[in-house]
UniProtKB/TrEMBL annotation:
UniProt keyword Cytoplasm present: no
Transmembrane segments annotated in the record for this chain: 72-92, 104-122, 128-144, 151-179, 191-209, 284-302, 314-330, 342-359, 365-386
Keywords noted in UniProt: Membrane, Transmembrane, Transmembrane helix
Organism placement in taxonomy: Bacteria, Pseudomonadati, Bacteroidota, Bacteroidia, Bacteroidales
Stated name of the protein: Glycosyltransferase RgtA/B/C/D-like domain-containing protein
Amino acid sequence: MELNGFKWLFSFDSINYYVPYVEEFVRYSNGSISKVFKDIFTDYEILSQDIPAYWLYTVPWAMLGQSVGADIYFSIQVSILFLYPFVGIMIFKLFQRFNIHKKALKYTLLICLFSIVFYYSSIILRDFHILLLYLIAINISLSEKQNYIRLILLIITIVITILFRVESGLFLALCIPVYLFATKLKNKYQIAISAFAGLFIVGYFFNYFSQIQEIYDTNHEVYLVEVETSSGIVNRLNSIPVIGNFLSIFYNACQPLPFWSVLQPVVTVKYGAEARNIMAFPRVFSAFFNVWTVVILSGLAFNRKLSAFFKSDIRFSVKMQVIIGVLFLYMQSTVMTQRRLMGYYCLYYVLAFAIYSQMNSKLRHQYNMIAVVLFVSLQIFGAIFLNS
């Protein structure tokens, strides 16, 4: 399957890491799921960079596909597409947390089809799995009533996320205090649960502090140092304290710039033609979708009615998650890939639609026009910068 130099639906990691490892697990398993489980966890260490959850989920799909004559790639792709409806359900549930019911399905479909979510549903990576886990955790943390079952489910979700990507799971642990503080403690039993959870988190942090520090240093070396030694826009923005980081977040959300750059036939690139994606065209829509989201969210700062809506009608737990989302994006402002950011991107998509639903037709038209003009201006800027 090849078109204009784009080979399969592969990214660099897919063809050089994920597919070969799945093939190896299937080859040595001899059809035994128990042997696969044993091989995956033989050398696993807590808070290591290994990804056992990905293999635990993907290898059985590959074995099932092999039993019916399907190749490894197809089986893995189906395993990711299987998660797609559940992502949609979690986004739909988020709209209900925002008290949006009538148009929740319509808005959910728009996010699933026109945001970056659609693009990454076509790529064999672990980010779509982590997206679903983030949405589950965020939904649980926004629950109005506290009970031990939800808390246990939240902790399990965080642990599974750690087994997919350790740094993503560690950050997701912030959902626990959101859940504990945002829900009302009505009796001694709930207070005891909250106290135990708090002590567990603190104890876990101190017990594995050295490993957590190592994870931070590794990510710093991979992303921040790489940016600091480059000569691109992100490096220039990163040199500006605080404001530069927020501008970098916006610049990342606007990618690709210009939008047609991902549609051009590519035969030779750094990692070969297979590192490109024949499904690149959805990124054109997602770039505009992100710009539109930023413009709508800006209404909180420039429109008193929308600001009052956020202050009075948005629940405290949602506000906490919005703030955590800002921290999440800020900490990864130098990471020039949107796949790691999808979890909180979806939260902001939902918030943008919640704000949009409070606008009258005139205000909607104004903000839509601003989004279009800004998007076109960014494409012109991207074309000029690219040519230079």
